[in-house]
Write a structure and sequence with these properties.
Length: about 425
């Protein structure tokens, strides 16, 4: 193999001829641009997004974990936690020495650390894996490495942050989908189950994109091709052996079937994929059935139902998760989601009362929310959780003093997120 410095120069000279560029720090995502918000707020948002990613890592299939770890490393990098960023990328490289993004990202981190020798070594390793080092290159299928590199980059676009307008967010999602399409062009040797994981993420990006197009009032002709393709992707994901993907695929299918009424004519993809007689509620029911003994998946479904405005279904799913695992340290997500549902129910009834459409809202919702949050704060104390409890006190003042320990709480923790 060529010397590291020569390999780095070779990489710079030849990389532009490729249809992809490994690494995450060059991607045209808002994450890689100058933040628009003040530094303190940007750091807070990065930490919250990172906490969400850590939850994703728990549910992610083994083949998808490198994509999650790359993003965790990128967030750590922008939080100036360079040692943690390096460890995230090194963990990927240790598990898969042929991972292109790992070596590209490591080179970037070492460059920031001023460790020139390590940076050049990583660039040389990357050049060898890509066949750019002037020798026969590394063993293994280069197309397979390229496919996974592109898929990991596409995954990252689903977690971008800082977009100011829906149009910007749509462009980021479209870029992620395009990267997955390029990955599929290299994916002849990718195992079926791994490819279904890609289909799942693609479907997720398409559904978010369709939601933005609906928000923008786009014409149905613009939405229709992607809508039909999403149905086809979900049909493949339903064959997955991963319960997480299978359950969420049924949930997403129910969402799409509910959206069919936003078209003047039923989209042909519904007929082509064999979903003509499928009821959305049946889809949601199948999702819950698959996840019935797995609290992490139930919690994910509960968040989606809450987002869709299906509060009874959401709180029922939270209760299922808590019936299986009541320990707030291990299942704090269910407590937090259920508290959020109760608060929204109270605020909804309050707005109706102000408009003269109903009586006074039931303050028991706030009491239930406070009780759930207090379970969380016992094991995961954090400022955000104390503030949320304080809001419950303010809206429904109890006899005792509200949150006397609020000033003693430490940094917002994982349990602080609502």
């Amino acid at each position: 193999m060529a010397e590291p410095e020569a390999a780095a120069e070779d990489l710079d000279a030849l990389i532009h001829d490729l249809d992809y560029l490994p690494g995450h720090f060059h991607l045209e995502m808002q994450l890689n641009f100058e933040p628009r918000s003040p530094a303190s707020l940007h750091a807070r948002d990065l930490k919250l997004q990172r906490d969400g990613l850590r939850q994703e890592l728990v549910l992610a299939a083994a083949t998808q974990r490198p994509a999650v770890r790359h993003l965790l490393g990128a967030f750590a990098f922008y939080l100036e936690e360079l040692d943690e960023a390096r460890e995230s990328f090194l963990e990927v490289a240790r598990e898969d020495p042929g991972n292109l993004n790992a070596w590209a990202n490591l080179a970037h981190v070492y460059g920031r650390l001023g460790q020139k020798e390590e940076e050049e070594a990583c660039a040389g390793r990357l050049a060898g894996l890509m066949g750019l080092a002037g020798d026969r290159g590394a063993a293994g299928d280069p197309s397979l490495r390229a496919a996974r590199c592109l898929a990991e980059q596409g995954y990252a676009h689903g977690f971008d942050m800082g977009c100011a307008r829906p149009e910007e967010r749509a462009r980021v999602l479209e870029a992620g989908i395009e990267l997955y399409d390029k990955a599929l062009g290299h994916a002849q040797q990718i195992p079926k189950e791994e490819k279904r994981g890609w289909y799942f993420t693609m479907a997720t990006l398409f559904i978010r994109l369709d939601g933005i197009l609906l928000e923008l009032g786009s014409k149905e002709q613009k939405r229709l091709p992607a809508f039909n393709r999403t149905l086809a992707l979900l049909r493949q994901v339903l064959k997955s052996s991963e319960p997480h993907h299978q359950a969420l695929a049924w949930c997403y299918l129910g969402m799409l079937l509910e959206r069919k009424d936003t078209f003047s004519i039923t989209p042909m993809g519904i007929h082509d994929c064999g979903f003509s007689g499928t009821d959305p509620l049946d889809c949601f029911g199948k999702a819950i059935e698959i996840a019935k003994d797995q609290p992490p998946i139930l919690n994910h479904l509960a968040k989606i139902f809450h987002f869709l405005g299906k509060q009874d279904m959401a709180i029922g799913t939270c209760n299922m998760a808590l019936d299986i695992l009541r320990d707030p340290e291990l299942n704090w997500q269910a407590y937090c989601t259920r508290a959020k549902i109760h608060v929204r129910a109270y605020l909804h009834d309050l707005e109706r009362s102000k408009m003269g459409l109903g009586g006074m809202p039931d303050r028991n919702h706030l009491a239930c929310a406070k009780a759930d949050l207090e379970e969380v704060v016992k094991v995961c104390p954090g400022l955000k959780t104390y503030l949320d409890i304080g809001q419950c006190f303010l809206r429904s003042p109890p006899k005792e003093t509200a949150c006397p320990r609020i000033l003693d709480s430490g940094p917002a923790s994982r349990g602080a997120q609502l």
